[in-house]
Amino acid sequence: MKIKALLTAAILSAVIVIAPFAQSEPVFVTESLNNYALGYMSWGVKHMGLDVLQKNLEKKGNLPEVKVAVIDSGINTGNKYVKNRYSNDGYNFINNNTDINDTQYHGTMVSGIIADCTSSNVKVMPLKVNGESGSGKLSDVNRAIYYAIEHNADVINMSLSAVDSKHTLTILDDAIDEAVSKGIVVVVAAGNQASDTADRYPANKENVLTITSVDSSDKIGENANTGSDVDFALPGVLILAPYKRFMMVDSGTSLAAPHAAAAAALLKSWCKHLNQDQVVDILKQYTVDLGDKGFDNTYGWGMINLAGFNVNATPPDPVTEPATEPTEATTEPSPEPTEPAPEPTTEPAEPTEPTTEPLPEPSTEPTTEPATVPSTAPLVIGDVNFDGTVDVFDAVMIQMYAAETITFDDSQAFVADVNNDGYIDVLDAMDIQKFTADKLKQFIKIA
Q: What burial letters (b/e) apply to 395-414, b meaning 16+ CB within 10 Å?
């Protein structure tokens, strides 16, 4: 066991300021895609076979509630993409109250990806540790992990990281160890500094799932961290996710991590008592190798694809850890569900400590980390031919599509539904014509 008291004041005063992945505007300003008329929000859902697994689990039925604790900036409960997909036991560790409102946007994006990737039995538990600036304290993260344990989380997602180039940070170790010992799957983003995960905490901790990002061609994301700590490389480039009240296309390992958390949550939906080792074993069995054969320091084990997972297979037996040497009457599992509720109010709460993740615009920290931007052009609603402008040619293409003389790929279909009513038709072409006539300039938003 590591002793928290050994942390020095110098370590506790380290600050990580989290900046947005890219300085961009929301993609959508009106309705949602929740009817999936044009597919899932994230291309990662199908890429990982999570759509197939969802359907198979739903057919099987009787799915238990599975909670994914998202330790982040909270959640925007007014965003319809996450409606009915969060639990009622979220908590704000900054103000020590139940106000889980996301005053930034990051937690909403992460939560929305988990909701998009999973069936409705999976609920997000929003645990707010980061404020409007996107930064916070590791002591609050520590409290949030213990809170997740006490409130029966099945998975914990931490799309956050702190500089740990001297490998001295240990403040979360005990909490993470306890979570894992209780069967909780702990997922962490690798970070976006184009460097080694060994220098980021808690990504460099051995018993977490460290996730880096790839694009839709399974190429490593721009500025995504790599190294021997990486377990899997998952969708994290140009991911469409909820943003404040709307949606945004963005990139980063913070968006890759919730894809892993979602995969773990679906496996827990199949068998609630799976522990982290069992989940990882299954994920490895359903992983497409990327990069060098077998494990490598860029992609870890590779890309998860659970489309072929057999939901009718016999689940493994629960793992029971003997408390000590087996003695005569050892049938009772040690009664630890009423564990201490270490929300340590005595934790060093003073200085600003490292916290969250997204793309680091080098800010108040003396660091040479490069700013991260999407590796390909952003999507523009209405720009069907992807030439960077919304014009009459886009309207003509939509009319041709409506007349069934041409077909669109998924990206074209997404940007073509200009009025966001779930259909691609002449009304979308008319909106573009109005826009080009300078009457609705404010309608089109660029990501």
A: bebbbebbeeeeebeebbbb
Look at residues 161, 152, 267 and name the one whose alpha carbon lies nearest to residue 212: 161
| Cβ(447)–Cβ(237) below 8 Å | no
Domain boundaries, the chain: 4-304, 392-443
Quick check: bond before 235 cis, omega within 30? no
Two structure tokens written together for 240 = 């469409």
**Cα gap 292→446, rounded to integer Å:** 37
CA distances from 314 to 144, 268, 270, 271, 318 (A): 34, 14, 10, 9, 12
Distance CA 353, CA 137 (A): 4
Report residue 196: phi and psi, to 5°: -90, 135
Instruction: Name the fold adopted by 4-304.
Output: Rossmann fold (3.40.50)
Distance of CA 200 to the CA centre of its chain: 17
Residues annotated as part of the active site: 72, 106, 254
Amino acid identity of residue 123, one-letter, is: K
What pLDDT shows up at residue 370? 29
As given in the structure block, the two tokens for residue 196 are 């080694």
The secondary structure element, H or E, covering residue 284 is helix 276-285
Helical (H) or strand (E) element with 179? helix 173-181
Biggest CA–CA distance in the chain, Å, is 84
Give the per-residue pLDDT at 164. Answer: 94
Task: Report, as ranges of residue numbers, the positions in the chain whose pLDDT lies below 70.
Answer: 1-39, 320-379, 410-411, 437-447
Model-level pTM? 0.69
